[in-house]
Protein backbone atom coordinates (compact mmCIF):
# COMPACT_ATOMS: atom_id res chain seq x y z
CA UNK A 1 0.00 0.00 0.00
CA UNK A 2 1.44 3.37 -1.02
CA UNK A 3 1.19 5.95 1.72
CA UNK A 4 1.99 9.63 1.72
CA UNK A 5 2.17 12.30 4.37
CA UNK A 6 0.44 15.61 3.91
CA UNK A 7 2.59 18.54 4.88
CA UNK A 8 1.39 22.08 5.43
CA UNK A 9 3.12 24.66 3.24
CA UNK A 10 2.97 28.37 3.94
CA UNK A 11 2.91 30.85 1.12
CA UNK A 12 5.03 33.50 2.81
CA UNK A 13 8.00 34.07 0.48
CA UNK A 14 10.83 33.82 3.06
CA UNK A 15 9.52 30.52 4.31
CA UNK A 16 9.22 29.15 0.79
CA UNK A 17 12.84 30.12 0.18
CA UNK A 18 13.97 28.40 3.38
CA UNK A 19 12.12 25.25 2.31
CA UNK A 20 13.60 25.40 -1.20
CA UNK A 21 17.18 25.74 -0.06
CA UNK A 22 16.78 23.15 2.72
CA UNK A 23 15.38 20.62 0.27
CA UNK A 24 17.98 21.46 -2.37
CA UNK A 25 20.84 21.00 0.07
CA UNK A 26 19.44 17.71 1.26
CA UNK A 27 19.73 16.42 -2.29
CA UNK A 28 23.34 17.52 -2.74
CA UNK A 29 26.68 16.36 -1.40
CA UNK A 30 25.69 12.70 -1.54
CA UNK A 31 25.82 9.91 -4.06
CA UNK A 32 23.14 7.97 -2.22
CA UNK A 33 19.72 7.34 -3.68
CA UNK A 34 18.74 6.36 -0.15
CA UNK A 35 19.09 8.04 3.21
CA UNK A 36 20.77 5.49 5.46
CA UNK A 37 20.59 6.70 9.04
CA UNK A 38 22.50 5.13 11.94
CA UNK A 39 21.67 5.81 15.58
CA UNK A 40 24.55 7.29 17.53
CA UNK A 41 25.03 6.62 21.27
CA UNK A 42 27.04 9.62 22.53
CA UNK A 43 28.56 8.21 25.74
CA UNK A 44 32.18 7.62 24.69
CA UNK A 45 33.66 10.74 26.21
CA UNK A 46 33.97 12.16 29.71
CA UNK A 47 30.65 13.92 30.16
CA UNK A 48 30.78 16.16 33.27
CA UNK A 49 27.42 14.80 34.47
CA UNK A 50 28.87 11.32 34.91
CA UNK A 51 30.19 12.65 38.22
CA UNK A 52 26.61 13.39 39.33
CA UNK A 53 25.67 9.72 39.06
CA UNK A 54 29.10 8.28 39.96
CA UNK A 55 29.77 6.27 36.81
CA UNK A 56 32.85 5.74 34.64
CA UNK A 57 35.58 7.03 36.99
CA UNK A 58 38.28 6.23 34.41
CA UNK A 59 37.25 9.35 32.50
CA UNK A 60 36.60 7.59 29.19
CA UNK A 61 32.82 7.29 29.34
CA UNK A 62 31.23 3.95 28.53
CA UNK A 63 34.42 2.67 26.93
CA UNK A 64 35.15 1.64 30.51
CA UNK A 65 32.32 -0.91 30.43
CA UNK A 66 33.67 -2.33 27.17
CA UNK A 67 37.33 -2.82 28.02
CA UNK A 68 36.46 -4.25 31.45
CA UNK A 69 33.84 -6.69 30.12
CA UNK A 70 34.43 -10.41 30.49
CA UNK A 71 32.90 -13.35 28.59
CA UNK A 72 30.07 -15.16 30.41
CA UNK A 73 30.47 -18.52 28.67
CA UNK A 74 32.77 -20.34 26.28
CA UNK A 75 32.62 -18.68 22.88
CA UNK A 76 31.01 -15.49 24.21
CA UNK A 77 32.31 -12.67 22.01
CA UNK A 78 32.66 -10.03 24.71
CA UNK A 79 34.12 -7.54 24.60
CA UNK A 80 33.71 -6.55 20.97
CA UNK A 81 36.91 -4.58 20.52
CA UNK A 82 36.85 -1.43 18.34
CA UNK A 83 39.38 -1.45 15.51
CA UNK A 84 40.06 2.25 16.09
CA UNK A 85 40.61 1.88 19.83
CA UNK A 86 38.84 3.74 22.62
CA UNK A 87 38.67 7.19 21.07
CA UNK A 88 37.18 10.39 22.51
CA UNK A 89 34.20 11.27 20.31
CA UNK A 90 34.05 14.84 21.62
CA UNK A 91 37.21 15.67 19.63
CA UNK A 92 36.46 17.10 16.16
CA UNK A 93 39.26 15.13 14.50
CA UNK A 94 37.86 11.86 15.86
CA UNK A 95 34.37 12.67 14.65
CA UNK A 96 35.74 13.81 11.29
CA UNK A 97 37.09 10.28 10.77
CA UNK A 98 33.72 8.79 11.66
CA UNK A 99 31.93 11.12 9.22
CA UNK A 100 34.39 10.38 6.40
CA UNK A 101 34.12 6.64 6.96
CA UNK A 102 30.35 6.61 7.32
CA UNK A 103 29.71 8.56 4.15
CA UNK A 104 32.28 6.54 2.19
CA UNK A 105 30.31 3.38 2.98
CA UNK A 106 26.85 4.84 2.41
CA UNK A 107 25.73 5.98 5.86
CA UNK A 108 24.77 9.59 5.22
CA UNK A 109 22.66 10.46 8.32
CA UNK A 110 23.39 10.17 12.04
CA UNK A 111 20.49 10.04 14.49
CA UNK A 112 21.88 11.26 17.79
CA UNK A 113 20.38 9.86 20.97
CA UNK A 114 19.63 13.12 22.73
CA UNK A 115 18.86 13.75 26.41
CA UNK A 116 17.42 16.41 28.66
CA UNK A 117 17.32 15.82 32.42
CA UNK A 118 16.72 18.25 35.30
CA UNK A 119 16.19 21.07 32.80
CA UNK A 120 19.60 20.74 31.19
CA UNK A 121 21.20 18.65 28.46
CA UNK A 122 23.17 15.47 28.92
CA UNK A 123 25.69 13.78 26.58
CA UNK A 124 25.73 16.67 24.10
CA UNK A 125 29.50 17.00 23.71
CA UNK A 126 29.76 14.28 21.06
CA UNK A 127 27.39 16.33 18.91
CA UNK A 128 28.31 19.88 19.87
CA UNK A 129 32.08 19.61 20.29
CA UNK A 130 32.73 16.63 18.04
CA UNK A 131 30.32 16.25 15.15
CA UNK A 132 29.32 19.88 14.57
CA UNK A 133 32.90 21.15 14.84
CA UNK A 134 34.39 18.50 12.59
CA UNK A 135 35.87 20.01 9.42
CA UNK A 136 33.64 17.79 7.27
CA UNK A 137 30.48 18.11 9.38
CA UNK A 138 28.37 19.32 6.47
CA UNK A 139 29.17 16.16 4.51
CA UNK A 140 26.64 14.36 6.67
CA UNK A 141 23.09 15.02 7.85
CA UNK A 142 21.96 14.52 11.43
CA UNK A 143 18.80 14.63 13.47
CA UNK A 144 17.73 14.04 17.05
CA UNK A 145 15.95 11.20 18.76
CA UNK A 146 14.81 12.53 22.11
CA UNK A 147 15.68 9.56 24.34
CA UNK A 148 13.27 10.64 27.07
CA UNK A 149 13.37 7.46 29.14
CA UNK A 150 14.19 7.51 32.84
CA UNK A 151 17.94 7.41 33.32
CA UNK A 152 18.63 4.45 35.57
CA UNK A 153 21.54 2.40 36.89
CA UNK A 154 21.19 0.24 33.76
CA UNK A 155 24.17 2.25 32.50
CA UNK A 156 26.29 1.50 35.57
CA UNK A 157 28.20 -1.80 35.30
CA UNK A 158 29.30 -1.52 38.93
CA UNK A 159 25.71 -1.56 40.23
CA UNK A 160 23.93 -4.94 40.07
CA UNK A 161 20.63 -3.22 40.92
CA UNK A 162 19.49 -1.78 37.59
CA UNK A 163 16.28 -0.25 38.99
CA UNK A 164 17.76 2.85 40.60
CA UNK A 165 16.47 6.02 38.90
CA UNK A 166 18.96 8.87 38.64
CA UNK A 167 16.85 11.20 36.51
CA UNK A 168 13.22 10.97 35.38
CA UNK A 169 12.54 11.30 31.66
CA UNK A 170 9.30 13.24 31.88
CA UNK A 171 9.24 17.04 31.56
CA UNK A 172 6.68 19.68 32.47
CA UNK A 173 5.51 22.36 30.03
CA UNK A 174 7.94 25.15 31.11
CA UNK A 175 10.86 22.71 30.82
CA UNK A 176 9.63 21.54 27.43
CA UNK A 177 9.52 25.11 26.13
CA UNK A 178 13.11 25.75 27.25
CA UNK A 179 14.18 22.49 25.66
CA UNK A 180 12.60 23.09 22.27
CA UNK A 181 13.93 26.66 22.10
CA UNK A 182 17.41 25.15 22.36
CA UNK A 183 16.60 22.48 19.75
CA UNK A 184 15.24 24.94 17.19
CA UNK A 185 17.99 27.51 17.64
CA UNK A 186 21.02 25.25 17.98
CA UNK A 187 20.10 22.24 15.84
CA UNK A 188 17.19 22.77 13.44
CA UNK A 189 18.90 25.83 11.98
CA UNK A 190 22.10 23.97 11.17
CA UNK A 191 22.45 23.56 7.39
CA UNK A 192 22.98 19.80 7.75
CA UNK A 193 20.02 19.10 10.01
CA UNK A 194 17.96 16.39 8.32
CA UNK A 195 14.67 17.55 6.88
CA UNK A 196 11.83 15.99 4.92
CA UNK A 197 10.17 18.43 2.53
CA UNK A 198 11.95 21.22 4.42
CA UNK A 199 10.53 20.20 7.81
CA UNK A 200 13.08 19.25 10.50
CA UNK A 201 12.72 15.64 11.64
CA UNK A 202 12.47 15.07 15.38
CA UNK A 203 11.97 11.62 16.90
CA UNK A 204 10.35 10.95 20.29
CA UNK A 205 11.51 7.70 21.87
CA UNK A 206 8.93 7.23 24.65
CA UNK A 207 5.61 8.83 23.87
CA UNK A 208 3.97 7.48 27.03
CA UNK A 209 6.68 9.07 29.19
CA UNK A 210 6.17 12.40 27.45
CA UNK A 211 2.39 12.25 27.96
CA UNK A 212 2.72 11.33 31.63
CA UNK A 213 5.37 13.93 32.41
CA UNK A 214 3.57 16.84 30.84
CA UNK A 215 0.22 16.08 32.42
CA UNK A 216 -1.87 13.92 30.11
CA UNK A 217 -2.84 13.57 26.43
CA UNK A 218 -4.47 16.97 25.93
CA UNK A 219 -1.57 18.86 27.49
CA UNK A 220 0.85 16.73 25.46
CA UNK A 221 -0.98 17.65 22.25
CA UNK A 222 -0.95 21.34 23.20
CA UNK A 223 2.82 21.12 23.81
CA UNK A 224 3.44 19.42 20.46
CA UNK A 225 1.28 21.99 18.68
CA UNK A 226 3.36 24.70 20.36
CA UNK A 227 6.56 22.99 19.20
CA UNK A 228 5.21 22.90 15.65
CA UNK A 229 4.19 26.58 15.86
CA UNK A 230 7.62 27.70 17.09
CA UNK A 231 9.31 25.64 14.36
CA UNK A 232 7.21 27.38 11.70
CA UNK A 233 7.92 30.77 13.27
CA UNK A 234 11.63 29.94 12.93
CA UNK A 235 11.20 29.79 9.16
CA UNK A 236 10.44 26.15 8.43
CA UNK A 237 7.31 24.86 6.67
CA UNK A 238 6.50 22.55 9.55
CA UNK A 239 7.78 19.97 12.02
CA UNK A 240 8.22 16.37 10.90
CA UNK A 241 7.47 14.49 14.10
CA UNK A 242 8.68 10.90 14.06
CA UNK A 243 7.68 8.17 16.50
CA UNK A 244 9.77 5.29 17.74
CA UNK A 245 7.41 2.40 17.07
CA UNK A 246 7.22 -0.05 19.95
CA UNK A 247 5.07 -0.81 22.97
CA UNK A 248 5.62 2.61 24.53
CA UNK A 249 3.10 4.16 22.13
CA UNK A 250 -0.23 3.93 23.97
CA UNK A 251 -3.05 2.21 22.11
CA UNK A 252 -5.68 4.10 24.11
CA UNK A 253 -5.81 7.66 25.41
CA UNK A 254 -8.14 8.50 28.26
CA UNK A 255 -9.77 11.88 28.59
CA UNK A 256 -9.32 13.18 25.06
CA UNK A 257 -12.34 14.78 23.38
CA UNK A 258 -14.72 12.02 22.36
CA UNK A 259 -12.50 9.37 24.00
CA UNK A 260 -12.24 7.46 20.74
CA UNK A 261 -8.52 6.62 20.68
CA UNK A 262 -8.37 2.83 20.52
CA UNK A 263 -5.22 2.02 18.51
CA UNK A 264 -1.60 3.12 18.28
CA UNK A 265 -2.40 4.47 14.82
CA UNK A 266 -5.12 6.73 16.23
CA UNK A 267 -2.76 7.87 18.99
CA UNK A 268 -0.10 8.95 16.47
CA UNK A 269 -2.75 10.65 14.34
CA UNK A 270 -4.08 12.55 17.38
CA UNK A 271 -0.65 14.05 18.09
CA UNK A 272 0.19 14.73 14.44
CA UNK A 273 3.10 12.36 13.93
CA UNK A 274 4.32 12.26 10.33
CA UNK A 275 6.29 8.99 10.30
CA UNK A 276 7.64 6.18 12.42
CA UNK A 277 10.58 3.79 12.65
CA UNK A 278 12.12 1.42 15.19
CA UNK A 279 15.11 1.88 17.45
CA UNK A 280 16.09 -1.75 18.05
CA UNK A 281 14.65 -5.17 17.21
CA UNK A 282 15.02 -6.09 20.88
CA UNK A 283 11.87 -4.01 21.40
CA UNK A 284 9.98 -6.39 19.13
CA UNK A 285 11.46 -9.86 19.72
CA UNK A 286 13.30 -11.20 22.77
CA UNK A 287 17.06 -11.53 22.15
CA UNK A 288 17.72 -15.25 22.30
CA UNK A 289 19.60 -17.39 19.80
CA UNK A 290 20.67 -16.88 16.21
CA UNK A 291 20.42 -13.65 14.29
CA UNK A 292 18.35 -14.84 11.32
CA UNK A 293 15.26 -16.09 13.25
CA UNK A 294 15.38 -12.92 15.38
CA UNK A 295 15.54 -10.77 12.24
CA UNK A 296 12.78 -12.68 10.45
CA UNK A 297 10.39 -12.33 13.39
CA UNK A 298 11.19 -8.64 13.67
CA UNK A 299 10.62 -7.72 10.03
CA UNK A 300 7.44 -9.80 9.87
CA UNK A 301 5.85 -6.75 11.50
CA UNK A 302 6.40 -4.64 8.39
CA UNK A 303 3.42 -6.07 6.50
CA UNK A 304 1.26 -5.74 9.63
CA UNK A 305 2.20 -2.10 10.13
CA UNK A 306 1.48 -1.34 6.49
CA UNK A 307 -2.13 -2.28 7.12
CA UNK A 308 -2.57 -0.86 10.61
CA UNK A 309 -0.93 2.58 10.33
CA UNK A 310 -1.71 5.50 8.03
CA UNK A 311 1.63 7.29 8.31
CA UNK A 312 4.82 6.03 6.60
CA UNK A 313 7.01 3.47 8.30
CA UNK A 314 10.74 3.74 7.61
CA UNK A 315 12.25 0.25 7.76
CA UNK A 316 14.77 -0.52 10.45
CA UNK A 317 17.60 -3.07 10.64
CA UNK A 318 19.49 -3.99 13.81
CA UNK A 319 22.99 -5.44 13.80
CA UNK A 320 22.64 -7.50 16.96
CA UNK A 321 22.12 -7.45 20.71
CA UNK A 322 24.35 -8.25 23.68
CA UNK A 323 24.07 -5.97 26.71
CA UNK A 324 26.28 -8.15 28.93
CA UNK A 325 29.02 -5.48 29.28
CA UNK A 326 26.53 -3.57 31.44
CA UNK A 327 25.84 -6.65 33.60
CA UNK A 328 29.17 -8.01 34.83
CA UNK A 329 27.65 -10.48 37.31
CA UNK A 330 24.60 -11.89 35.48
CA UNK A 331 24.10 -13.33 32.01
CA UNK A 332 21.68 -11.45 29.79
CA UNK A 333 19.83 -12.63 26.70
CA UNK A 334 21.79 -12.07 23.51
CA UNK A 335 21.90 -12.66 19.78
CA UNK A 336 24.67 -14.81 18.29
CA UNK A 337 25.91 -15.46 14.78
CA UNK A 338 25.15 -11.92 13.61
CA UNK A 339 27.64 -12.02 10.77
CA UNK A 340 27.95 -9.08 8.33
CA UNK A 341 26.60 -11.15 5.43
CA UNK A 342 23.43 -11.93 7.41
CA UNK A 343 23.05 -8.26 8.31
CA UNK A 344 23.37 -7.48 4.60
CA UNK A 345 20.43 -9.76 3.81
CA UNK A 346 18.14 -7.60 5.92
CA UNK A 347 19.51 -4.37 4.53
CA UNK A 348 18.47 -5.73 1.13
CA UNK A 349 14.99 -6.44 2.48
CA UNK A 350 14.79 -2.89 3.85
CA UNK A 351 15.84 -1.48 0.48
CA UNK A 352 13.19 -3.62 -1.22
CA UNK A 353 10.57 -2.32 1.22
CA UNK A 354 11.51 1.28 0.46
CA UNK A 355 11.42 0.62 -3.29
CA UNK A 356 7.93 -0.80 -2.89
CA UNK A 357 6.76 2.40 -1.19
CA UNK A 358 7.61 5.12 -3.73
CA UNK A 359 5.23 7.59 -2.09
CA UNK A 360 7.50 8.07 0.91
CA UNK A 361 11.09 9.23 1.44
CA UNK A 362 13.82 6.61 0.95
CA UNK A 363 14.92 6.48 4.58
CA UNK A 364 16.28 3.40 6.37
CA UNK A 365 17.40 3.38 10.01
CA UNK A 366 20.10 1.16 11.52
CA UNK A 367 20.93 0.29 15.10
CA UNK A 368 23.54 1.47 15.49
CA UNK A 369 26.72 3.29 14.64
CA UNK A 370 28.33 2.58 18.01
CA UNK A 371 26.18 0.69 20.53
CA UNK A 372 29.22 -1.27 21.70
CA UNK A 373 27.71 -2.03 25.12
CA UNK A 374 24.64 -3.53 23.43
CA UNK A 375 26.47 -5.51 20.76
CA UNK A 376 25.22 -3.48 17.80
CA UNK A 377 27.85 -1.32 16.09
CA UNK A 378 28.61 -0.46 12.47
CA UNK A 379 31.99 0.92 13.46
CA UNK A 380 34.87 -1.38 12.50
CA UNK A 381 35.83 -4.02 15.05
CA UNK A 382 38.75 -6.39 15.52
CA UNK A 383 36.84 -9.49 14.35
CA UNK A 384 35.03 -8.34 11.21
CA UNK A 385 36.95 -5.18 10.38
CA UNK A 386 34.78 -2.99 8.15
CA UNK A 387 32.43 -5.89 7.40
CA UNK A 388 29.18 -4.29 8.56
CA UNK A 389 29.99 -1.09 6.68
CA UNK A 390 30.88 -3.09 3.58
CA UNK A 391 27.40 -4.61 3.78
CA UNK A 392 25.85 -1.13 3.75
CA UNK A 393 28.02 -0.07 0.83
CA UNK A 394 27.18 -3.16 -1.19
CA UNK A 395 23.42 -2.65 -0.78
CA UNK A 396 23.09 1.12 -1.05
CA UNK A 397 26.06 2.36 -3.10
CA UNK A 398 27.44 -0.39 -5.33
CA UNK A 399 25.53 -0.49 -8.58
CA UNK A 400 23.29 2.52 -7.77
**Overall helicity:** 25-40%
Per DSSP, the total helix count is 13
Category by helix and strand content: alpha/beta
Order of helices and strands: HEHHHEEHEEEHEEHHEHEEHHEEHEH
Q: What is the count of β-strands? A: 14
Strand content: 5-15%
Q: Going by CATH, what is the homologous superfamily?
A: Glycosidases
> Per CATH, which architecture?
Alpha-Beta Barrel
Q: Which term fits the overall shape?
A: globular
The number of domains is 1
Overall pLDDT confidence? 92
Question: Under the CATH scheme, which class?
Answer: Alpha Beta
Q: What are the segments in which pLDDT stays under 50 over at least 5 consecutive residues?
A: 1-30
Could you tell me how far the N terminus lies from the C terminus, measured between alpha carbons in angstroms? Answer: 25 Å
CATH fold annotation = TIM Barrel
Largest sheet: 10 strands, mixed
Query: What is Rg?
Result: 20 Å
Keywords: Membrane, Transferase, Transmembrane, Transmembrane helix
Protein name: Glycosyltransferase WbsX
Transmembrane segments: 6-24
GO molecular function: transferase activity
List the helices and strands and how they pair.
Elements (H helix, E strand, L loop, with lengths): L12 H14 L8 E6 L9 H4 L9 H5 L24 H13 L4 E9 L2 E3 L2 H7 L9 E6 L4 E2 L12 E3 L5 H16 L6 E2 L2 E6 L2 H8 L2 H17 L6 E5 L19 H8 L3 E3 L11 E2 H9 L1 H8 L7 E3 L16 E2 L3 H16 L7 E5 L19 H10 L4
Parallel strand pairs: 1-2, 1-14, 2-4, 4-8, 8-9, 9-10, 11-13, 12-14
Antiparallel strand pairs: 2-3, 5-6, 7-8
Amino acid sequence: MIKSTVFVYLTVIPIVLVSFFATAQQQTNTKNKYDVAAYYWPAYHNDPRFKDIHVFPDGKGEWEAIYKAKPKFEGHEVPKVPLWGYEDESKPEVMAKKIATATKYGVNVMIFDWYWYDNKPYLEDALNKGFLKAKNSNDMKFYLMWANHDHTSYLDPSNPDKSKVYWYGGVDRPTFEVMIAHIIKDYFKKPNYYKINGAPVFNIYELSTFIKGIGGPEKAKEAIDYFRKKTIEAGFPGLHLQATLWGNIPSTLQGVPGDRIQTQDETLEYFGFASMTNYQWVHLVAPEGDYIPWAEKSISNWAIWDKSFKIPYFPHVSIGWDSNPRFPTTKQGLIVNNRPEYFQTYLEKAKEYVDQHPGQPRLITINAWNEWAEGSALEPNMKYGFGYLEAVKHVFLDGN
